[in-house]
Write a structure and sequence with these properties.
Blueprint lengths: L2 H11 L9 E4 L3 H10 L8 E4 L2 H9 L4 E2 L7 E6 L3 E2 L5 E2 L6 H9 L1 E9 L12 E5 L4 H10 L3 E4 L1 E2 L2 E2 L7 E6 L6 H9 L4 E4 L1 E2 L6 E6 L2 E6 L1
Parallel strand pairs: 1-2, 1-4, 2-3, 4-7, 7-15
Antiparallel strand pairs: 5-6, 6-14, 8-12, 8-13, 9-12, 10-11, 15-16
Helix pairs in contact: 1-2
The structure holds ribulose-5-phosphate (5RP).
Length: 223
């Protein structure tokens, strides 16, 4: 099975966590796209979705799945999203698709985070994947220096030759060279730096379940 097929496998498997009659939280990325496509098969049995990005909203709406504003919804039972890395405790690095801020908002609004990923995303220690951090552009240089003091190298994410602009009108720093041994402490610290909108370490909103796509089928990890 190739990576795309593994993503489709977990996207389909995630349907068992969707609560009929309710609103489901929907993440962003290529694995979530497989989930959204699978969700279309039960669109008449759910109330709709709260989406974490403009891209996911467009895909949901194209499949005639109603998308609610997060402000119009109270608690969500289940949030389904991918990850760039997940550790054995369910802590994740997210934001490879630049949607980390809205992802963290919807995850915070949800009781259970169900992570869907292919098995290449499982790591012992977070940090080989550069940590995405959404920042206010005028603070970017200062935050780069703060990461340098920690031993990391931060680079502004580019798209088509110019700094990428997120759905929230901000920019992304990708920080390499970090081995994140204490994800909770790291997330708490970076969150306090002026100009940081969201750090792409999800330790306070970690996964409750991870559906990992492997060549022998879906492996379920619970945390
Ligand atoms: O955090 C994310 C987007 O901001 C994605 O969930 C993460 O990048 C994984 O993406 P993919 O499923 O395409 O590998």
């Amino acid at each position: 099975m190739n990576q795309d097929e593994l993503k489709a496998l977990v996207g389909q498997a995630a349907l068992q966590y969707v609560v009929p009659g309710e609103i489901v939280g929907v993440g962003t990325g290529s694995t979530v796209n497989k989930f959204i496509d699978a969700l279309a098969s039960m669109k008449d049995r759910i109330a709709g979705a709260v989406s974490s990005s403009v891209a996911s909203t467009a895909r949901l709406q194209a499949l005639h799945i109603r998308v609610f504003d997060a402000n119009d919804v109270d608690q969500i039972s289940v949030y389904i999203d991918g990850a760039d890395e997940i550790d054995p405790a369910g802590h994740m690095i997210k934001g490879g698709g630049a949607a980390l801020t809205r992802e963290k908002i919807v995850a915070a609004q949800s009781t259970r985070f169900i992570c869907i990923a292919d098995e290449s995303k499982l790591v012992t220690t977070l940090g080989a994947f550069p940590v995405p951090v959404e920042v206010i552009p005028m603070a970017a240089r200062r935050i780069e220096r703060q990461f340098a003091a920690m031993g990391g190298t931060a680079k502004v994410r580019m798209k088509d030759g110019v700094p990428l602009v997120t759905d929230n009108g901000q920019c992304i720093l990708d920080v390499s060279g970090l081995a994140i041994k204490d994800p909770l402490a790291f997330e708490s610290e970076v969150n306090q730096w002026p100009g940081v909108v969201t750090v792409g370490v999800f330790a306070h909103q970690k996964a409750a379940v991870c559906l990992l796509g492997t060549p022998s089928g879906v492996k379920t990890l619970t945390f």
